[in-house]
Specification:
Structural class: alpha/beta
Number of strands: 13
Strand order of the largest sheet: 3-2-1-4-5-13-10
Oligomer: single chain
CATH class: Alpha Beta
Order of helices and strands: HHHHEHEHEHEHEHEEEEHEEEE
Helix content: 25-40%
CATH superfamily: Vaccinia Virus protein VP39
CATH topology: Rossmann fold
Radius of gyration: 18 Å
């Protein structure tokens, strides 16, 4: 196994149970309310449209709340993740929420080894996923390989411009990290996580990569996909820049002062030709 996979998997294994218990993932709401869906999926409902009856796969599904949400909208969903502890929690969430979802363990680049090629109408990738992958072109080829001709990719992701910001500065917004994909990863060591929890993790190191928006679009075009929609947003569903952001009534966070200065996330759709 590549070193980055082992290190990152240990980190996500450590996060899984804490994320299930965090109020930010609202697992209790999924169990109590059969109509409840995650805020990330709800944000894009109009763009997502009617997915009832579609066969879908959620890549990097983590504890499966977005996967369950898509299944509740009528899709026949498979969730794929490389973290066995995350998948164990995801299966428990789906069972307790009485929502049928199939979960498969594999890293993204091995998806075509464990899932049938050209068998999905929808590939979904949620926010905070692509930064864990070193090669966006390889990801795009995997997506295209999973989709039937005419099948759709749907992505809501952190904007690569937001990913350049060093969040340790309380008084300034400082661009310090790469915008464009580089071979060498950014290596972080952080005992916390992006949701509310009092857990301190033992596996704290992570390897991450940036992918410019143009690089992502070009990778999809080169893999035989057609771009059908691209919307940039001034908000993200977590407090990405502490001290600089305010939360709205829908749970999204944006810059408190002049939010139009910074693109913070994007929604991208593409169709396999």
């Amino acid at each position: 196994m590549d070193e980055y996979l082992g290190v990152n998997r240990a980190n996500w294994d450590a996060r899984a149970s804490a994320h299930v218990r965090s109020p930010d993932y609202a697992v209790g709401r999924f169990i109590e309310d059969p109509m409840f869906i995650s805020g990330v999926v709800r944000f894009d409902l109009d763009r997502l449209g009617d997915i009832a009856g579609l066969t879908g796969v959620h890549l990097q599904c983590h504890i499966g709340t977005a996967t369950v949400s898509l299944a509740r909208l009528g899709a026949q969903m498979t969730g794929l993740d490389f973290s066995p502890r995350s998948l164990r929690e995801a299966k428990r969430v789906a069972e307790q929420a009485h929502t049928p979802v199939r979960f498969v363990e594999a890293d993204v680049y091995s998806a075509l080894d464990v899932l049938d090629p050209e068998s999905f109408d929808l590939v979904y990738t949620g926010i905070g996923a692509l930064c864990w992958l070193p090669d966006i072109a390889r990801w795009a080829r995997t997506v295209a390989g999973l989709l039937r001709p005419g099948g759709r990719l749907f992505v809501r992701e952190m904007h690569p411009m937001l990913a350049t910001i060093d969040d340790s500065h309380a008084d300034l917004i400082v661009v310090d990290y790469p915008y464009f994909e580089r071979v060498e990863p950014m290596v972080f060591d952080d005992g916390g996580t992006y949701v509310e929890t009092d857990v301190e993790f033992a596996a704290t190191q992570t390897y991450e990569w940036s992918h410019g928006l143009g690089q992502t679009v070009s990778a999809l075009l080169d893999s035989g996909m057609q771009l059908t929609d691209l919307v940039e947003h001034d908000s993200v569903p977590w407090q990405a820049l502490p001290g600089h952001m305010s939360q709205d009534e829908f749970g999204e966070w944006r810059l408190t002062a002049r939010p139009w200065r910074l693109a913070e996330s994007f929604t991208l759709q593409a169709r396999r030709l």
